[in-house]
Amino acid sequence: MLHQVRETIKDEAVIGLIKKFLKSGVMADGLVRANEQGTPQGGNLSPLLSNIYLTKFDRMLEERGHKFVRYADDCNIYVKSQRAVERVMEGCIQFLEGKLKVNRKKSATGSPTKLKFLGFSLYRRKDGIGIRVHEKPLKRLVERLKALTSRKRGGTMEWILQEISRLLIGWLGYYSIADLKEHLKRISGWLRRRIRQMYWKRWKRARTRYENLIQLGIRKDQAWQWANTRKSYWRIADSPILNYSLTNQYLESIGFPEVLKRFEMLHERIGLLLKLRTPIPTH
């Protein structure tokens, strides 16, 4: 690898710095331990050196006429048949295992509409091929939002909404190239219901619920009837009791993630721009 770096970089001070990075060790549980091979996982240097080292692999794929996409050590190669899949996979492993070790458990074959690449998958649509978020990162997002909106957790609602906003800003920033409209609509509705459930749990006593419902514009007779309901928290969170009091507008006024609405608008603009381009053919 250092030999390949030297082909472009002639400054030995830079080469020496890379050596120090590679031999500096890794920290686990507050303790530094030596690393005998490879680059420190998660370091800034790792993807850069991967790109340098795998340049010859890219050139080999190009010379053989393969369609492929690679980010650091994660690579997808697209072929037309299962027979071609097996042949190309074996050829790539032979090429790489001269100096690298291929993780065969993580090296899979299958349809690009089902396999995951950097959190994304492809899917067919009427005007060509679309990009979608794979099920696994969507599931992880829902799990994290579920933890943030647990009715058992503490902290002010304002702080919790800020946490949710920060999470969504980062997540949507990464997955913004995917088609997310339906996912955002579903997550927004589910998230509002989770937040309403938290409010109802925090109000606890019937008297507190009665007073808060009145403050939110509900008539006294209706507020008293609703405050004494015996429905479960989750059912109430999707009932007129809270839909008419903790309205969408009210939740937005106290900090419900505005990023969802902004992203919906941004995604509509991106969709209009993409329609002006030639669609990706399906064949």
Number of E-state strands: 6
> What is the N-to-C order of secondary-structure elements (H for helix, E for strand)?
HHEEHHEEHEEHHHHHHHHH
Radius of gyration: 26 Å
Strand content: 5-15%
Instruction: Please give the alpha-carbon distance between the first and last residues.
Output: 38 Å
Q: Please, what is the average pLDDT? A: 81
Q: Biggest sheet: strands side by side, in what order?
A: 1-2
* Number of alpha- plus pi-helical segments: 14
Largest sheet: 2 strands, antiparallel
Helix content: 55-70%
The structural class is mainly alpha
Principal-axis shape: elongated
Q: Which spans of ≥5 residues are poorly predicted at pLDDT below 50?
A: 276-283
Oligomer: single chain
What can you see in these coordinates?
The structure is a single chain. This protein is mainly alpha-helical and 283 residues long. Helices cover 56% and strands 10% of the residues. It contains 14 helices and 6 strands. The chain has helices at residues 2-8, 12-23, 45-53, 55-63, 82-96, 135-148, 157-175, 181-203, 206-215, 220-227, 233-236, 240-243, 248-253, 258-275, and strands spanning 26-28, 31-33, 67-71, 74-78, 120-125, 128-133. Strands 1-2 form a two-stranded antiparallel ribbon. Strand 3 and strand 4 form a beta hairpin. The protein is elongated, with a radius of gyration of 26 Å. The two termini are 38 Å apart.
